[in-house]
Amino acid sequence: MHIRKNLLLLIAAALLVSALPLFAQAQQEDGTTEIGISKIITHPALDAVEQGIQDELAALGVENVSYDLQNANGDISTASSIAQKFKADRVDMA
After folding, report:
1. Is CB count within 10 Å lower at the N or C end of the chain?
2. Rounded CA gap, 42 and 47, in Å?
């Protein structure tokens, strides 16, 4: 079970990292890119993915980025509310 959980986290991280070029292309009208990042729980692997996204965008030279970092604290309904918030706020990437 532990291996399966780690594998799922690794797959999620790989999907997020593969989408980084899309993050770099999205922008608000004022030139700011707004990125919403939601995680279901605080976990070292998920924290590393969150930081890795920010670090990689900085390394790519993406400027004027605003991050909305959210944590659902293990609650599925909170995760859904966060997704709705990102949609209502019209973030460039979530």
Report:
1. N
2. 7
Total residue count of the chain as it appears in this document: 94
- Predicted TM-score (pTM) of the model is 0.67
Task: Give the pLDDT confidence of 39-64 residue by residue, as tens digits.
Answer: 999 999 999 999 998 998 889 888 88
Spatial separation of the C-alpha atoms in residues 28 and 92, rounded to whole Å: 7
Q: From CA 5, how far away is CA 10, in angstroms rounded?
A: 9
Compute the distance between CA of residue 39 and CA of residue 44 in angstroms, rounded to an integer: 11
Q: How far is CA 13 from the centre of its chain?
A: 10
Contacts of 57 (CB under 8 A, 6+ apart): 20, 23, 24, 35, 65
Quote the Cα angle for 24-68-33, to 5°: 30
